[in-house]
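Fold it.
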Amino acid sequence: MPSGRVSIFVTCIVDQVFPNVGLAMADVLERLGYDIEFRQDQTCCGQPAFNSGYREEAATVARHFLRVFEGAEYIVVPSGSCGSMISHHFEELFEPGSDSHKESLKLKPRVYEFSRFLLEIAKTDDVGARFDGVVTYHDSCHALREMHIKNGPRRLLGKVRGLTLKEMDAAEECCGFGGTFSIKFPEVSGGMARTKIDSIQKTGASTVVSIDSSCLMQLQGAISRAGLPIRTMHLAEVLASR
């Protein structure tokens, strides 16, 4: 059985909008035998500032993150987007050879997106979940393109009792959120979301699953506006289901 202490980084959007995702992730990890640690001083990973071009502000947030999670054995993140920021872009924010740059490189191999942690560290694809229904999976951009996460979440969903996974034809296409992109280009963002919803409907699924809550927020908004009987769920929520 796996063992050890896991520090969870819940991300801004989970903390403020979807707290059940963080609780579900903790539940699954505890079920597998891990001790869960939530470091109270955690804030943001700095991605909103980084993506908007405010690199100095992003570096300030990143330094805080490095201080908060210093010494953590594992840092598990319920987001490919935030996970990518920490493991791929923190090092870009600091001068090579500086203390912060060295700390970012030390931190990198200890940061895991949730599904990857289950498969690579916990060494399991079956967490004893049950979810009755037809679902389809949305590949979030950062998880797919920067972290190369594709088959893992599907493998985990495939072991959930009662669940039928139906692939959509536009699974790898962006949902249109893109952080500030959806604010700066609302018409384009909305069009991308509608294209995605059409693809979801064709599968006949009643639930859309992803590993990024920001994508799910975008999709749920479009689904609700269209009045469709489809819900969105984070992978952790499905895996926590009994």
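The first strand starts at residue 5 and ends at 8.
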